[in-house]
Write a structure and sequence with these properties.
341 residues, mainly alpha, 76% helix, disordered C terminus, transport, transmembrane helix, SLC35_F1/F2/F6, membrane
């Protein structure tokens, strides 16, 4: 069976392809939920070291994928300084979200992570000139409305949990701004059709940026930590789940597009609810379930009304500065482009 036959068979089995994409999306969702759970566990063990948590993820990515990149002995397809910027915003996003677990509950953090969708809409509208239909904007507004119920609950109406829930919510929202910029940059780099280069460079430069920030931000916290087996295992679990997450996200973006990815990641919120109930034995406020339902409705409206608002320029032989369609738009690459790659 030659490659053309395989491509023809893949196109003709749409149901199987969709099932495969849904499966991959749920793997991403599960790894994100595991990252949230282990980060929350580290915070509950009295360790306030969000940068150090990310340091181990970036180190793992650099060792695993950097080795493959060195073995290839080929030049970078994207200039190194773009990877520095990408790594910087990614590190800040991880820092603020992980820091939020010191003040807020795992459910609040994972639900408020959905603010990334709203920031991507704003970022692409202002910076890249992407235009959206009224129904798409209506769906985004519904999402923001649903997420507002989390803030209402954490303000004391329903008791969201955590020592300073509003501060934790603010840190999450700040982190999602950086995540939006990171997602936009990663989408561009993935369109260079070299996921190994993207992931390895995020690991290398993310490790260097984190290493530079630790002495100024959390060195005193690290010195006061009494390392135990539970803490070490929690850090290891966070690093492994992060490795899987960063491995799968570029692949899913390239294969299925951003809408499928965002809808899949949304289910991580319900995984977080399961972790909170069974591992922390905490009661989940009813506002969370209403918020989750409203967010799902908003994202469904956005996804079913999505259209080709902006064409995607080819980056096969183009310059790294060419504008590109991002997470909020249509699929990152067409099925034919993916199958040909």
């Amino acid at each position: 069976m030659n490659w053309c036959t395989i491509k023809s068979w893949w196109r003709s089995h749409g149901g199987l392809r969709t099932s495969y994409l849904l499966f991959l999306g749920q793997l991403v969702s599960l790894t994100l939920a595991l990252m949230s759970f282990t980060s929350s566990l580290i915070a509950s063990l009295g360790v306030d070291a969000p940068l150090t948590q990310s340091l181990f993820i970036y180190l793992t990515l650099a060792l695993a994928y950097g080795s493959l990149l060195l073995y290839r002995r080929q030049g970078l397809r994207v200039s190194w300084y773009w990877y520095v910027l990408l790594a910087f915003v990614d590190v800040q996003g991880n820092y603020f979200v992980n820091k939020a677990y010191q003040f807020s509950s795992i459910t609040s953090v994972t639900l408020l992570d959905c603010w990334t969708v709203a920031w991507v809409l704003v970022l692409t509208w202002i910076v890249l000139g992407t235009r959206y239909s009224k129904w798409q904007l209506f769906g985004a507004v519904i999402c923001v409305t649903g997420l507002g119920l989390v803030l209402l609950s954490d303000a004391g109406v329903g008791g969201g949990g955590g020592s300073k829930p509003l501060l934790g919510d603010a840190l999450v929202i700040l982190g999602t701004i950086f995540f939006a910029m990171s997602n936009v940059g990663e989408e561009f780099c993935v369109k260079k059709k070299d996921r190994i280069e993207v992931v390895s460079m995020i690991g290398v430069f993310g490790f260097l940026v984190t290493l530079c920030e630790i002495p100024f931000i959390e060195l005193k916290h690290l010195e006061s930590v009494s390392w135990t087996t539970s803490i070490v295992l929690a850090f290891a679990g966070y690093a492994m789940s992060g490795l899987m997450f960063y491995t799968l996200v570029p692949y899913v973006l390239k294969l299925s597009g951003a809408t499928m990815l965002n809808l899949s990641i949304l289910t991580a919120d319900m995984w977080a609810v399961v972790f909170r109930i069974f591992f922390y034995h905490q009661q989940v406020d009813w506002l969370y379930y209403i918020s989750f339902s409203i967010v799902v409705v908003g994202l469904v409206i956005y996804s079913v009304t999505e259209k080709d608002s902006n064409p995607v320029p080819s980056l096969e032989n183009g310059d790294a500065n060419v504008p590109y369609q991002v997470l909020a738009g249509e699929n990152a690459t067409s099925e034919n482009e993916f199958l040909a790659s």
